[in-house]
Amino acid sequence: MTNELLEQIADSQMILIGIGKEMEENYQGMDEDDFYRPLLAQAQDEKDSAAIIQYLRCHYVRRHPNQRIKESYEKLSDILDGKNYFIVSLTEDDYIYNSTMEKDRIVTPCGGFRALQCKEECSTDQEALVTDEHVILQVLEKIDHCEGTLSSVDFPVCAQCCQTLWFNRIETPGYREEGYLPQWGKYTEWLQGTLNRKLCIIELGAGMEYPSVIRFPFEKVAFFNQKASFFRIHGKLPYLTEELAGRATSFKINPVDFLLGDEK
Ligand SMILES: [Zn+2]
User: Backbone phi, then psi, for 103, in 5-degree steps?
Assistant: First the structure.
């Protein structure tokens, strides 16, 4: 972290943060792991193989969290402590929810591992999302004890149509947006309150994945708020638009390295 950014944060009334895919778990470690490799291979033969892979990935991030990503969230949480902030994150690994960050100040429009849903539109007379943490913990425990045999794991099924439930994630067929919309409402309200306030905008690894969620609207907010400062941190796409010249700063570095202070 640079002093310039820390000074702007200290000096600002509100802080808007966008977190992108560069801060996300990449699951590469699973392919090299003797526990997961055979399970991933077996998942390929399952009817809803993409859903089964979601469960295996959930198991992986919960049981083997990436320490560097975890630490970078703690660092961010320290910096934002006591500030009026809001975070929009494209990540789906839930590290942010397992950090000390204030959950009420976070929206994750791509979903994650916190709720299950059916891929069909079948839940007419019941809740569309299964948010019971117990159901998820139970299947993770079954995976713990499966001894390399995926068929011994009973994955949760829809109470209506009896098909395997998927996680409430953007890549799930029929993604249920009600998983994040209540927080999105809080975010847009918060954003309206930034008008004419001294606002510090920080992008951490948000590239061209869903640019209409962070990248483009954040530039627009910075453009219309003359009191805003803008920081773009990205390992590959740090470039700024000319309209923000003089008020924007960019760093070509991976956001995890940036937060942990590693100039790699
Ligand atoms: Zn169903």
Answer: -60, -30
